[in-house]
Design a protein that fits this description.
Elements (H helix, E strand, L loop, with lengths): L1 H38 L5 H8 L3 H7 L3 H23 L5 H16 L3 H7 L9 H18 L9 H16 L9 H8 L44 H14 L3
Helix pairs in contact: 1-2, 1-4, 4-7, 5-7, 5-8, 7-8, 7-10, 8-9
Length: about 250
Amino acid sequence: MAQCRTTSTASPASQPLRSDARRNRSLVLQAARSAFEEEGLAVPLGEIARRAGVGAGTVYRHFPSKEALFRATVVDRVRLFTDTARELADSDDPGRVFYRYLTAVVRLSVRNKGLCDALEGSFEPSPGVEADFREALAALLERAQQAGAVRKDVSVADVTALLVGCLSMEQRRGPGTAPGRMTALACDSLRPGRHVTKLPANPAPERNETRCAVCGGPVAAARTGRPARYCAAACRQKAHRERARARGV
């Protein structure tokens, strides 16, 4: 009986603490999202605590570092881009969808410095999240190339670099330049045509550095077994289809 009374009195006392912790975590995340959106990774953690109306110690109790807090605020946005690309992968008009997708990613990211930092590679939002984004983007690119809407010598590494370039150009456009104009000009460089500039070959990989056999992007070193040849599942599937076509299957 005594043990039952002890348990029942401890439980109500602990419940408000859990509720307060959830509320504080929500306040911190909300403040961090707006702070990172405005200032990117440069924002001090103390400023985030001030906006949330909590002490710095409260922030650290939920997030061990500013980088961990950044991941928590940005990862959902990057995953949304990834999920959207996957949903569009089977579109009936892959070329149009590909260019509209690139334009949308730039438009939604250019005003968010945190997202810009993530897409520019200043800080990886979360292990695997960047790889998933590249894989989904590669699938859109491949279908657009098959439809003849994107030149064949473009890789997913080229497209991600172009995205970063578009973000930079849109941020630096003059007051008389319409939003999206620089992105439209950049996207035209991906379109096939008779008078496009032939791209120079990618340089040979450095010693001990493995490059994807399809897109030329870096391949993570294999911990065990046979060394990996492709950077993502999309490139592996593309190589398999090309081998099958070569065999006449």
